[in-house]
Amino acid sequence: MTAKIEQLAVEKAKNSTFAIFDTVPTGLHGAYRKSDDRLVQYDIWMNKGLYITFPSYSIFLTVAPELGPEEIFGYFIGHNRDNESGAPIEIDYGAVTGNGGFALLVSVCETETTVTEFWYSLLCNTTLTDEEILYEAWRGKGNLWAYTRPDRYLIPETVAARGLSQLSQFPPDTDTLYSDSSCPAEPGFDRIYVSRLPLDPLFLICEHLPLMSFLIVLALNKRLRRQIDLNHLAYQAMRTMEPWYLPSNPIVTPDGTRQREDLDWWEEQWLTHAGIPPTKIQSKIPWLKYWIQCSRSPSMRNRKRIWSVALQMKDYHEKQIAEIPTTQLR
Questions:
Q1: d(CA 18, CA 70)
Q2: In terms of domain of life, where is this protein from (predicted)?
Q3: Which pLDDT belongs to residue 79?
């Protein structure tokens, strides 16, 4: 039944569609070869194949394990495509939308003028320091973060980071969740106080908050910070709200290699930099510090972008399956 669903879901997908790993460009447009054998070559054009980086493919299979090579390839060849990039126009690629083919990599910048004018104005700006120019190029409107590897987790930076002094930047501790001006007294109305809420509802609230909201809630109430396992709560919230900061799931490869590449690197980094063995990772990692570091990372920002693309493809796949008459699925 599953095989039949997959065949019906993508009309143009062929039964012979399969994934090839470890290929590198030959220097000729559209021509690739096996990394360890120059004689094995492939022509990869949009109508007969497409290339995806290994970290991106791992993200795709983590977000949507039901999307195999047939579904991914079929999605790309079965949609209206951008003439320049060859990508389906239905996908929002974020910073790199519409940038592909022979387009300049620097054309990902956000500008109301031309790409050349933007970069000339930035790189020749004598009022900015080198650090400020690099920041704007990589993290600001230059959008070069979109070309960073999406699997460089901020583990050394987390270990080297200081304590969580960030909490002092938020409003001082107060018993009330709402101020008098935002929650005026009314007859029969009892103000909501953070200190009066049981811990269990507070935990549930925090587990569904993005990072900044999570930190603000913690800053509002000292009792909450003292009585909870902060790392465990941060892990639960990050896993629920921003799971792209966690490593990709293992995947299946033809020769059995690289199946745990992301997880192996993740575990190795924690052991090397923090002395945390794989069996203790979930309980020993300073999750809140890690979450904060990831939120500042160009690599993790790009990972979030790719994760979003995978979610869009997953949603489309599910809609296609839902539209197939049940009689065809038997």
A1: 7
A2: Eukaryota
A3: 60
